[in-house]
Amino acid sequence: MMKSLKRMRKNEKEKFVIPKSVQDVIPIKAVYKDGIFLVGNNLYSKTFKFTDINYNIASDEDKQELMKGYWAVINSFGAGVTVKMTINNHQLDRAEFEKSILLRYEYDGLDNYRKEYNDMLLDKAALSNCIVQDKYFTVTVSKKSIDDARAFFNRVGNDLTARLSRIDSKCLPVNAEEKLRIFHNFYRSGDEQNYNLDFELLQNQGCDIRDYVCPDSMDFYNDYMKINDKYCRVIFLRNYGTFVSDDTIAELTSINRNLMLSVDFLPTPTDESTKEVDKVLLGIQTEKANYNRKQVQNQNYGATNYDLEQREAEILEVKNDMRNRDQRLYSTLITMVITADTKQELDNVTDTVFSMVSNGSTAQFAILRYQQLDGLNTVLPFGVRRINCFRTLTTESLAAFMPFNAQEVRHAHGTYYGQNTISGNMIFVNRNQLLNGNCIVLGVSGGGKSFFVKEDATSIILANPNADVLIIDPEREYNLLVNALCGEVVNISSNSENHINAMDMNKNYEDDKNPIATKSEFIMSLCEQLIGGTVGPKDKSIIDRCCRNVYANYIKSGYKITPPTLKDFREELLNQPETEAQELALALELFTDGSLNTFAQPTNVDINNRLICYDILDLGEQLLPVGMLVVLDNILNRITSNRTKGRTTYIFIDEIYLLFAQKYTADFLYRVWKRVRKYGAFATGITQNVGDMLQSNTARTMLANSEFTVMLNQNGSDRLDLSKLLNISDNQTEFFTNVQAGHGLMKIGGHFVPYANEFPKNTELYKLMTTKPGENI
Fold first, then answer.
1. Residues 6+ apart with CB under 8 A from 289
2. CA 104, CA 107: separation in Å to the nearest integer?
3. Is 748 in contact with 428 (CB distance < 8 Å)?
4. Phi and psi (nearest 5°) for 476?
């Protein structure tokens, strides 16, 4: 046995005292508010929680890089510490979970749709695993005082956070209240919602902290235990090869029930490891020499002991790895506790785990007999180890017990977007938690883009009374849904009775006290679009002057009188002495007094409805670019006004590639896209012409900078362009290659999440949202 392991055992050794109460079973001596636990004689432990990453769907090359990153994490723990990596599977409280995701009834005439949507969510929740998987590192060290321990854990925490961030995993220290919740929820499974520990109050009262986390009863048997009314069993990995599959941990923790799995590893000092390897190598070579000498004496020349040869090759490989590949040695122990409601169920789950491990490998689990209590305290993230069944592994072999599997997205107060294809869990995204909440939805015709957007808009209207939804619809696909949800459809064309004043402006139009500058810039873009050319410096000065003049009285009135129109702007141009002004006025005549004057009229539609659809299908070729500019400006007015009211605005732009076809609409959209976040708004663009969109540098920048991207079924060339732009691996590309409608890949922040969303067809909502011929009847 290595000296470091002997010292560790000596430090951890305690006199056994027969527990007289359930509190005595819990190995906690003292608890500090920052999460440091005293768990033995001068033994302090602290737990760090880290997040999952998408290891399962990464390419082979990316997996190698992630594996190396995890090596660095393992190697960062120096000698003299015990490290416990714990995966905690715990089921969501179904009642609380369902309560948190269901929509409230508002008695506004839309509750029949809310009921349908709630029924859909309940059906999805029933199919979902409803398993939350938390991952922890618990580090235990022997220190003379809490101050020394605190300084040590601060260094470890900073280093651990930095190294995990390199593989895109976030790491945070767990405070005392959070860590005690882990034990409370395990010991009192089913009673999680009643955890109301006030750490400061208990500390001030001098209470035993264990009283608030311990179970009511614990009964121990030779191969299982009963905690309250739950049956538990601790098992350990007794036999396994030097190299195991990197999905072993993921497979073991994929069981749909409460369980914990811990991998304890003790780093061995490098000099001690080298001596130990040399010692083992010398022993093997001595055996080999003795064997060869005996064979020569027996005149059995050329005989070979293949077992000794293999052992020598293995130890030489270990020695070479330690010397050239930064490999270190670790004494490793793997334990697992599984839970069930009945003894029979516990036996069945145990058999399932045993078969999962033994199938196609040399690994073998075994039950800890007459050591269930010691095993339980070893598995739970207290930071103690009561079982001595070690296996020596190198860094590479230990890293094969990869804790990462699939990134889950379950934001608080998020919107439902489907189920994770890997884990089966529901996906909830809250755009407020992203750096920017803008979204791009991409896919071929029939891939489910429109349905995705309609479901998104519907859930916002039904779930959030404090949010407005604005839709730009160039294909007249949303009228049925908008009318059913009591929204306003604004038909915009040269012959329509609906008018939107291009000069509309509210006092919150821009952050500056004087919004004229921004509005003047918009009018310049509008004039350039109307006259079909670039306005010169003189023209810009004239336009800016006329803007200020026509808005003067409107601003003085406190934005209370009727705002000016393009007709007023043209009359102001005619009043200017410059020849350029007269030419501008002449160019605008068609759009103010001629047949294309729809945007020169006062606004006569209900722009205060919380659901507005701008139907621009009938805009002619000449009016389409102008119409899109005016609609975008009208939307900008709305979102700036909503910001002062504390309302959130969601903008959906279908066939967004049309806006990039014109320079002025593309530039204006780009400015809006960058600014909506600070206005409390979120923009979503939808297109099937991915190739056309990617030809625009502006569009490529918007796509690359959007934190939320939905990739449905793509054609060949678009797949390659997207993969290159967003750095998507071949494995991830498969999730939006030749898939059925409603299936694809989401980019949420820096994570890629494969998803599937199939809405029940026997609902009124489905008929309102589908675009398949015959299904919306």
1. none
2. 9
3. no
4. 55, 50
Q: Which residues of 544-565 are buried (b: 16+ CB within 10 A; e: fewer)?
A: bbbbbbbbeebbeeeeeeebbb
Spatial contact of 133 and 52, defined as CB atoms under 8 Å apart? yes
Of 398, 388, 263, 395, which Cα lies nearest the Cα of 6?
Answer: 388
What CATH number should be reported for the domain whose range is 3-9+29-92+130-268+328-399? 3.40.462
- Counting Cβ atoms within 10 Å, is residue 33 exposed (0-12), middle (13-18) or buried (19+)? exposed
Higher pLDDT, 207 or 137: 137
Tell me how far apart the alpha carbons of residues 600 and 500 are, in angstroms, rounded to a whole number.
8
Q: Give the rounded distance of the alpha carbon of 178 from its chain centre.
A: 21
Residue ranges in 648-739 assigned as alpha helix (H)? 657-660, 663-675, 690-694, 697-705, 716-726, 730-733
The pLDDT, as a whole number, for residue 486 is 93
Q: Which two tokens stand for residue 474?
A: 């160039």
pTM across the whole model: 0.81
CB of 498 closer than 8 Å to CB of 597:
no
* Collapsed DSSP state (helix, strand, coil) of residue 547: helix
Identify the top-confidence range among 404-408, 447-451, 455-459: 455-459
Q: Which residue stretches of 128-269 are H helix?
A: 146-165, 176-187, 199-205, 248-252
Token pair, residue 466, equals 């404090």
Positive/negative CA dihedral, 383, 386, 387, 393: positive
Label residue 36 left, alpha or beta by phi (over 0 means left) and psi (-120 to 50 means alpha): beta
CA distance 542 to 248: 72
CA-based nearest residue to 192, from 201, 202, 184, 200: 184
Residue 410 DSSP one-character state? B
Other C-beta atoms lying within 10 Å of the C-beta of residue 240? 21
61 CB burial (10 A radius; 0-12, 13-18, 19+): exposed
Contact 197, 212 (CB under 8 A): yes
The packing angle between helices 111-127 and 94-101, to 10°, is 140
Cα(89)–Cα(86) distance, integer angstroms: 10
CB atoms under 10 Å from CB of 678, counted, come to 10
**What residue ranges do the domains of the chain occupy?**
3-9+29-92+130-268+328-399, 507-601
Specify which residues 331 forms β-bridges with.
Answer: 266, 392
The phi, psi pair for 328, rounded to 5°, reads: -125, 170
Give dist(CA 745, CA 762) in Å, integer.
26
What is the helix (H) or strand (E) element at residue 764, kind and residue range? helix 764-769
- Quick check: 384 and 83 in contact, CB under 8 A? no
Q: Higher-confidence residue: 510 or 581?
A: 581
Distances (CA, A) of 392 to 1, 46, 268, 409: 11, 24, 10, 36
